[in-house]
Amino acid sequence: MSIENVRKYLEQFGLADRVMELEDCSATVAQAAADLGCEEARIAKTMAFLTKQGAILVVMAGDARVNNSLYKAKFGEKAVMIAPDRLPELVGHPMGGVCPFDHVPGVPVYLDESLRRFDIVYPAAGTNHSAVRLTIPELEGSVQEFAGWVDLGKGWRPEE
User: Fold this and answer.
1) What is the DSSP letter of 76?
2) Using CA of residue 70, residue 74, residue 113, residue 62, what is the dihedral sign?
3) How far, CA to CA in Å, does 46 sit from each of 61, 67, 158, 159?
4) This prediction's pTM
5) What is the CA angle 62-68-71, rounded to 5?
6) How far is it, in rounded angstroms, from Cα 16 to Cα 86?
7) Please, what's the largest Cα pairwise distance for the chain?
């Protein structure tokens, strides 16, 4: 799967023109923010976890980290990231390009509360040189197999 597949997927929502191919690698939050000229928190990183039921994706703000106790309370098991070499097989995108669009069917996607404080966020678009500019309602409405909002993040609230 590639940026072209993600672009084609987003056509159904009228969002294909928002996909950006970046000159530099955007595989990390810092790299993506530098390429896009935005704050790191606005990078909507998609994290891939392996559960007993299979792969799941959690999209959270670039400055948030997974709170393991909240994750375990929500999913009933410890958070286990999918190994980079298994991402294409289990999720359909390579490391740095994992996104909530045009992924392997049957993979539920959760959006983390850390995203709600922004008007615009930038998830990847299938490669480690891509991004897509979306409002939160556009993101929520275009996520493939949207499973709901969760509160799994830590480190992004001012009081933390």
Assistant:
1) S
2) positive
3) 9, 15, 22, 24
4) 0.95
5) 85
6) 27
7) 41
Radius of gyration of the chain (CA): 14
Q: Which two structure tokens, joined as six digits, stand for 19?
A: 């996909």
Q: The tokens of 125 are what?
A: 């678009």
Given a contact cutoff of 8 angstroms between Cβ atoms, the answer to whether 22 and 131 are in contact is yes
Q: Positive or negative, the Cα torsion across 34, 6, 21, 126?
A: positive
Alpha-carbon gap, residue 14 to 18, rounded angstroms: 9
Question: Which tokens sit at 154?
Answer: 């830590």
At position 12, the amino acid (one-letter code) is Q
Convert 74-92 to b/e letters by CB count within 10 Å (16 or more is b): ebeeebeebeeeebeebbb
Q: What is the pLDDT of residues 31-71, one digit of tens each?
A: 999 999 999 999 999 999 999 999 999 999 999 999 999 99
**Dihedral (C-alpha) 111, 112, 113, 116: value to the nearest 10 degrees?**
-50
What is the reported pLDDT for 33? 95
**CB-hemisphere CA count at 13 Å for 155?**
10
140 contacts 50 by C-beta, under 8 angstroms = no
pLDDT tens digit sequence for 116-155? 999 999 999 999 999 999 999 999 999 999 999 999 999 9
For residue 121, give the amino acid letter.
V
